Amino acid sequence: MSRFVRWTAVAVASALLAAGCGGGSSDDDKGGGGLSWGRCKATADAPAPGNDWQCATLKVPLDWSKPDGETIGLALIRAKARGDDRVGSLLFNFGGPGASGLSMMPSYAPTVSRLRERYDLVSWDPRGVGASEGVRCRGDKEIQAAESVDVTPDTPAEEKAYFQDAADFGEGCQKDAGKLMAHVSTADSARDMDRIRDVLGDDRMHYFGISYGTELGGTYAHLFPRRVGRMTLDAVVDPDADTVGHAQNQARGFQRALNGYLESTGQDPEEGTRKIAALLRRIDARPLPTATPGRKLTETLAVTGLTLPLYNKESWPTLTSALDAAERGDGSELLTLADGYNDRAPSGHYGTTTHSQRVISCLDDRQRPTAARTKELLPEFEKISPVFGPFLGWDTAGWCHDWPVPGQHDTPEVSAPEAAPILVVGNTGDPATPYEGARKMSGELGKGVGVLLTWRGQGHGAYGSGSDCVDSTVNSYLLNGSIPKDGKVCS
Questions:
Q1: Which of 70, 120, 291, 346 is most buried as measured by Cβ atoms within 10 A of its Cβ?
Q2: Which segments of 160-247 are extended strands (E)?
Q3: Where is the signal peptide (predicted)?
């Protein structure tokens, strides 16, 4: 089970590069606070990203309240600016939480090639992610076995199994992460970001945050407002939403995207939604066979497979093909889509993005809705979206059920009235982080700080999604410091 809010799902899901942090210094790899930059190593799954890229490891405190205590290593990656008129470093976070900057930065670099004229492109694996003390909560066989757990339970037995699986997952995370489990919060990572800024030699933080990366950027701005430089937040998480509100936002967002998809195929959205909901009920009662031996398409996998193509309008034809196949009784295509979202390789090996996602978000969020509360809310969720509502409704109770460590807040604090202007980019057709979040973030940052740029488009995120207006506005801001008029709209 994984929450839907992930930039990684489509925008850079094709990224196969995974960089390790390597030794072996090059002639000019010193600098940046004494970091030893070297060639990025290949991993077991992918080659190194090429000679343009360098990697290093930065030591930071495990517990920022004890700055001289035990340390952990953060894995960094960078490509130096191509031009002579360098602004500084531009730090990227690709969301999740749990996305690996080491694996995603090289594949995203062509999208931001203009920005490399004046910036070193820099990213990192946040604490608890990938090469930075990454957490694995269960093995591949356990993950696949859990696919049979019904995450929209209909009977007491299914409900018991659902919550037991959630508790087991948390126990596995605690066993693997140990002391780190209580120190992977968004606030911890924001403090790590400031250390990264310092060692890179920048007086101010220049930052590009996507999806969850917008919450991280807002948290940084709140903690270090006077160190904010040029900061762009794209595909914005609503800072005012609590656990239930966030889930309802996503139900609305994905239903809007589904409506857009259905309209594009000539279907009435209400009728098309009812048809898909009926398909999911049939799959819940009798999972579909697939071409993969020993695996069937469960309702959970079907909903996950539906989700993936909605992140990107160009993927809608794939959804049509998968739904047609499922209606014929073949779950293979939806299973392939679900595997893509769940980071499952053809070999059966699963990545750990969703593990890190859960560990970080459950440390952040102290709300733990009960099963009884969820059942009260289910009719409202189902009204918002008959397809996605039940999944996201039950998720409010199951995601952090019986979690080993307490959460830290109800909603993140992002107010930053002393910060420089921050460009907040919202997409009206964003399924995972609905547009309302951008409006909320721009207001919460403070008057004169949050500058809202709206794109009337489709898909998760706006920059690099086909709008010359969005791209030129963001580029002008980051490259030249040109702040657009608050409320500018790109259509």
A1: 120
A2: 205-210, 228-234
A3: 1-18
CA distances from 172 to 84, 168, 220, 284, 341 (A): 49, 6, 30, 27, 21
Assigned token pair, 150: 């019904």
Alpha helices in 265-388 (DSSP H): 269-285, 299-307, 316-327, 332-341, 353-364, 371-384
At 251-304, the pLDDT tens digits run 999 999 999 999 999 999 999 999 999 999 999 999 999 999 999 999 999 999
The amino acid sitting at 158 is: E
Task: Say what the pLDDT of residue 24 is.
Answer: 38
DSSP letters of 363-421?
Answer: HHB-----HHHHHHHHHHHHHH-TTTHHHHHHHHHHTTTT-SS---BSS-----TTSPP
DSSP type of residue 287: P
Give the rounded distance of the alpha carbon of 431 from its chain centre.
Answer: 13
Furthest-apart CA pair in the chain: how many Å? 66
- For residue 306, the SS3 value is helix
Catalytic pick among 460, 465, 467, 471? 460
**Average pLDDT of the segment spanning 144-171:** 96
Vertex 380: Cα angle to 248 and 364 (nearest 5): 35
The helix, strand and coil proportions of the chain, stated in percent and rounded to the nearest 5, come to 45, 15, 40
Question: Is 430 labeled as catalytic in the residue annotation?
Answer: yes
| pLDDT tens figures, 41-85 | 876 455 689 899 999 999 999 999 999 999 999 999 999 999 999
Q: State which amino acid sits at residue 460.
A: H
Query: Which entry of 192, 430, 442, 465 is annotated as an active-site residue?
Result: 430
Cα four-point dihedral sign 180, 183, 186, 188: negative
CA contacts within 13 A on the Cβ side of 125: 26
CA distances from 137 to 71, 169, 342, 441, 469 (A): 22, 6, 14, 32, 43
Angular region, 294: left φ>0, alpha ψ -120 to 50, beta rest: left
Select from 93, 212, 91, 76 the least CA-distant residue to 478: 91
Distance, in Å, from the CA atom of 431 to the CA atom of 260, rounded to the nearest integer, reads 10
Question: Among this protein's residues, is 211 annotated catalytic?
Answer: yes
Strands 71-79 and 119-125: antiparallel
The amino acid that residue 216 corresponds to is L
Choice among 211, 361, 385, 442 that is catalytic: 211
Q: Is 168 a catalytic residue?
A: no
Peptide bond into 406 cis (omega under 30): no
